[in-house]
Write a structure and sequence with these properties.
Layout (H helix, E strand, L loop, with lengths): L2 H5 L74 E2 L2 E5 L7 E7 L2 E6 L3 E6 L2 E4 L8 E7 L2 E6 L4 E5 L2 E4 L8 E7 L2 E6 L4 E4 L4 E3 L11 E8 L2 E6 L4 E4 L4 E3 L8 E8 L2 E6 L4 E5 L2 E4 L9 E8 L2 E6 L4 E4 L4 E3 L8 E5 L6 E4 L4 E5 L2 E4 L8 E8 L2 E6 L4 E5 L2 E6 L5 E6 L4 E5 L4 E4 L4 E3 L8 E8 L2 E6 L4 E4 L4 E3 L10 E8 L2 E6 L4 E4 L4 E3 L8 E8 L2 E6 L3 E6 L2 E7 L3 E5 L7 E4 L4 E5 L2 E5 L7 E6 L4 E5 L4 E4 L2
Antiparallel strand pairs: 1-2, 2-57, 3-4, 4-5, 5-6, 7-8, 8-9, 9-10, 11-12, 12-13, 13-14, 15-16, 16-17, 17-18, 19-20, 20-21, 21-22, 23-24, 24-25, 25-26, 27-28, 28-29, 29-30, 31-32, 32-33, 33-34, 35-36, 36-37, 37-38, 39-40, 40-41, 41-42, 43-44, 44-45, 45-46, 47-48, 48-49, 49-50, 51-52, 52-53, ...
Length: 627
């Protein structure tokens, strides 16, 4: 994580952030025969974590397919999905975390953050219209219908043409779903168990004593045999009229349940927990998952069972024992479903795996490293930088990872002739078309911002009030403790004698061509971005969501949203700002307007020219809008 990201107080804690011990990895199994008449597994909540995970290519180890089950080959996605004019350029087909997956009608359905429902069929990805931005955490199918459920009790019913909301009196977040023969079952927060009976959604009679822990998984072999699992080793079983609470040999949170048939039920959860149920007796089974949390179970029968979870954990059961399989990803895997030959797994940052003939392949393409900054030197080029020292360049053929460094990168500036990047541990580098060259600054503190009036006048800012100036030959440090001892996060100007820099504790500095001077404070909070439309007219954003505007030499508040990380725009006054939870706002003649871009990933930076707008952020997010 870069110093800038830390300073912006972006701290996201979740299940997927917990440490996990990687499992021992073995070769893939030979494909197995599909068992007839077995319902495919459903999906379970896997949680969400901002930040990047690198996905590799095709699994190198695989068995020998037999005639009964030959996995089909699915190629990596090459195009991004769009919504409201905003299109994913990285990752592909999109980068919202996916929590649920189900195979039906020769195609895959997947559900996730920001109201996302994806459909893959015959090699084509589509995004369904859901009419919600709520996180969808479970999905299942009943005949030709698709059901999805998620945060705040949202329940959707639809098909390939679109979805509509189903009235639900419960506001509890729903994280598990099962499409059964007697209706659609949902489980969720604080012991919630709901069922659609064909007419409405009703809450089932509570267990005795009532269950108040969060529930995560639901599956049944029929209307009189439904299993529900949750926190603190909770296992419930419905007989068609009442609940029974089973004694569990594990007290860990249980997140998934699936069965081949009545009396052949499996349960999985945190710390690699695997339980086998024969009738109503639960037994703990040796698990190769280490401390990884297992979030999903699926399969086609007792000799074709799969589990997946955090840190790319993937397990397979051949009827005798569980073994760890190479997944070729470190992404947290949240849900899987069988297409008859192992199937599909989805998860963090839009990761999508499929069991191809050569093994498990990542068919979602692109980098998933968090990106902190972006620049557009020309209409057909762009450059983005981020964590793990990643540098991505866009050409007419798309985005590619150009380079990586030991230190994370916080900012980039490019004018077509030169490119500058800055980052942790005093990293400052310059590209002149042939190679990257380290620029000596004498600084070991983190550097956070860079802007140039020209290739021979470039400003660099960072920790401890650092204000560095490149004059075409070398760097001079013009910062001093009298101006500010605080971190300066970003710098931007419209001319060599009209440059502004902002940072922590409300720091606002201006360079007039001769020296830097501190402007009167407008806030004591952290200022995260500054951008100039023209001489004397600038905007600044604050981490508390305030937007400030400079006119006639005076800064004043102009807008207020949630947390904002950056502000920029094309030449003129068409200003954009971005922030947490996918927040994008645009300044129009009537004022600042929120824009829905189809993600709730954290957005760290925005850049625009006369032809397009680019936003970048967590999980490798790159979205492009063409006005």
């Amino acid at each position: 994580m870069s110093p800038r990201t830390k300073a912006l107080l972006v701290v996201i804690g979740s299940l997927l952030g917990c440490s996990s011990e990687p499992p021992t990895v073995y070769e893939d199994f030979p494909p197995v025969r599909r068992d007839a008449g077995v319902r495919d597994g459903g999906s379970r909540d896997g949680g969400s974590r901002d930040g990047g995970s690198r996905d590799g290519g095709v699994d190198g180890g695989s068995g020998t397919p037999d005639a009964a089950c030959t996995p089909s080959s699915v190629a990596p996605a090459t195009a991004g999905l769009c919504q409201g004019g905003w299109c994913w350029e990285n990752p592909l087909p999109q980068g919202n975390t996916l929590h649920g997956a189900v195979w039906a009608d020769d195609g895959l359905w997947a559900a996730g953050e920001a109201g996302t429902v994806l459909r893959w069929k015959a090699g084509t990805w589509e995004r369904a219209k859901t009419g919600t931005t709520s996180a969808l955490r479970a999905i299942c199918t009943a005949g030709l219908e698709v059901w999805a459920a998620g945060s705040d009790g949202v329940v959707l019913r639809g098909d390939s043409k679109g979805f509509s909301a189903v009235p639900n009196a419960s506001q509890a977040s729903l994280v598990g779903a099962w499409c059964g023969p007697d209706g659609i079952w949902f489980v969720g927060a604080a012991g919630t168990v709901l069922r659609w009976d064909g007419q409405s959604i009703k809450e089932l009679p509570p267990a005795a004593p009532p269950v108040t822990v969060d529930l995560f998984g639901v599956w049944g072999s029929g209307p009189k045999d439904v299993w529900v699992v949750g926190e603190a080793g909770t296992v419930l079983r419905w007989n068609g009229a009442t609940w029974s609470r089973l004694t569990s040999p594990a007290l860990e949170t249980l997140r998934a349940v699936w069965g081949a048939a009545a009396g052949e039920v499996w349960i999985a959860g945190s710390k690699g927990t695997l339980l086998s149920a024969t009738d109503s007796t639960l037994s703990k089974v040796t698990s190769p998952a280490g401390l990884a949390t297992l979030t999903t179970l699926w399969g086609t029968g007792t000799s074709d069972l799969w589990a997946a979870g955090t840190a790319g954990t993937l397990l397979a059961y051949d009827g005798t024992s569980w073994r760890a399989i190479q997944s070729n990803t470190t992404a947290a895997l949240a849900a899987g479903s069988s297409d008859g030959c192992g199937g599909w797994v989805v998860g963090e940052a839009g990761a999508i795996l499929h069991r191809n003939p050569g093994g498990w392949a990542n068919v979602g393409s692109g980098s998933r490293v968090a990106l902190n900054a972006v620049a557009i030197p020309s209409p057909d080029q762009a450059i983005a930088v981020g964590e793990a020292g990643a540098i991505l360049r866009r050409s007419p053929s798309g985005w590619t990872v150009e380079d990586e460094r030991a230190s994370s990168l916080s900012a980039v500036w490019a004018d077509g002739a030169t490119t500058w990047v800055v980052g942790g541990a005093g990293l400052v580098e310059r590209w002149t078309g042939a190679s990257w060259t380290s620029v000596a600054t004498g600084k070991t503190e983190g550097m956070h911002g860079v802007w140039g009036a020209s290739s021979s006048e470039v400003w660099l800012v960072g920790d401890s009030g650092a204000l560095l100036r490149w004059d075409g030959v070398g760097v001079t440090d013009l910062g001093n403790m009298a101006l500010t001892p605080d971190t300066i996060f970003t710098v931007h100007g419209v001319a060599a004698d009209d440059v502004w820099a902002v940072g922590d504790t409300g720091t606002m500095l201006r360079f007039d061509g001769g020296s830097w001077k501190r402007a009167p404070d407008v806030t004591t909070g952290l200022l995260s971005g500054v951008w100039g439309a023209r001489r004397g007219e600038f905007w600044a954003t604050a981490i508390d969501g305030t937007i400030y505007r400079l006119q006639s030499g005076v800064w004043s508040q102009e807008g207020k949203f949630e947390s904002l990380n950056h502000v920029s725009g094309p030449p003129g006054v068409e200003t954009w700002a971005v922030g947490q939870q996918g927040l994008v706002v645009h300044r129009e003649p009537a004022g600042w307007v929120r824009v829905e871009v189809g993600t709730n990933n954290r957005l760290n930076a925005v850049a625009a020219d006369a032809t397009s707008v680019l936003v970048v952020g967590a999980s490798g997010t790159i979205l492009r809008y063409k006005p």
